[in-house]
Amino acid sequence: MDKMFDMHCHIIYDVDDGARSLEESLAILREERRQGVTDIILTPHLRLGMFEASRDRVERHFKVLRHEAREHFPEMNLYLGCEFHSNMDMTDMLAEDARYRMAGTDYVLLEFSGAHPADYIRERTYSLISHGYRPIIAHCERCHPIYSSLRFAGELFDMGAELQVNADTVCGREGWSMKRFAVKLMKEGLLSYVGSDAHNLRDRAVHIGEARTYIEKKAGGSYARRLFEINPQRIVDASCGTKEDY
Ligand SMILES: [Fe+2]
C-alpha cells in the first residue's frame, strides 16, 4: 500500500489545544489510519505566552502515545515535530532543543499570525535559512501577505522556504477563495505539503484523505504522491543520524 503522511497535526494529548486525553489521541489516530495515513509527524504548538508546554512533557506524552499506537496501529510510524510560532529568539531556541524541529532535523514548521506583515515574514524566514534551517511555512494561506500575493509566495519559495496548506483549505471548508489560492499555488509549483492541522474529531477534524482525493483528481496521482509522500518522506529521511527517538 502507498505511504501517506500527515505532517501537521495536534494529536499529542494535553500539551496544546489539540487532543485532551490519550483516548482522544488514539481516536484521532484511528481516523487518520481510516483515511489512509501511514506516517504522522506530530506537531504540538510552541507559541510564547500561549502554548508553552515544556518539550520534556511533550516528549513524554509522545512516547506514551507512540507505545500505544504500536499496539493498535502497528503499521503506522509516528515522529515528533513542532509547530513553532515565530519569535525573535527562535534561532537560539531551535539550536538549544532539537525537539522544536521536525523529527529532530533542520526542517522547522514555522507559523506566523495572520496579521504579520510581509517584512516580518521575510526577515524571520530568512533568519532561519541563514542559520541553516529549512523553514516550512505552516498553513501559509492564513498569512495575509502570502494569500494576497503569489509574487510574495514565490519570493519566499525562491529564498528556500517551503509552503504548506491545510487539508480543509484544499477541500473548500475554509471558503472558495482560500481553495482557489491553494489551487493557484499548485499550478505555480509553489506548494510542497498538505497537512490536516487536526485538533480533534469535531470542529477541527481530519480531512486529509478527502484532500488527497481532490488533488489526485485535479492534478494527477504522481503530483499528489509528491505532496503526501515524497516531500514529507524527505523530512524524516533527513533525521538519519540524529537522535533515534524523534
Ligand atoms: Fe497547527
Attribute tags:
about 250 residues, 3-stranded parallel beta sheet, globular, alpha/beta, 6-stranded parallel beta sheet, binds fe (ii) ion, 9 strands
Written overview of the protein:
It is a single chain. This protein has 10 helices and 9 strands. It has 246 residues and is an alpha/beta fold. It has a single domain, classed as Metal-dependent hydrolases (TIM Barrel, Alpha-Beta Barrel), CATH 3.20.20. The strands form 2 sheets. A 6-stranded parallel sheet has the order 3-5-6-7-8-9. Strand 1, helix 1 and strand 2 form a beta-alpha-beta unit. The model has no long low-confidence stretch (mean pLDDT 96). Fe (ii) ion (FE2) binds at residues 8, 10, 83, 197. Fe (ii) ion (FE2) binds next to loops.
Taken in chain order, the helices and strands follow as EHEEHEEHEHEHHEHHEHH
- Average pLDDT confidence is 96
Uncertain residue segments: none
SS elements, strand count: 9
CA radius of gyration: 17 Å
SS field, number of helical segments = 10
Major beta sheet, strand line-up: 3-5-6-7-8-9
- Looking at how many chains there are and whether they match, the oligomeric state comes to single chain
Distinct bound molecules: fe (ii) ion
Helix content: 40-55%
**Strand coverage percent:** 5-15%
CATH architecture: Alpha-Beta Barrel
What would you call the structural class?
alpha/beta
Topology:
Blueprint: E1 5-6, H1 22-34, E2 39-42, E3 45-46, H2 55-72, E4 77-80, E5 83-85, H3 90-96, E6 107-111, H4 118-130, E7 134-137, H5 144-147, H6 150-159, E8 162-166, H7 167-170, H8 176-187, E9 193-195, H9 208-219, H10 221-237
Parallel strand pairs: 1-2, 2-4, 3-5, 5-6, 6-7, 7-8, 8-9
Helix pairs in contact: 1-2, 9-10
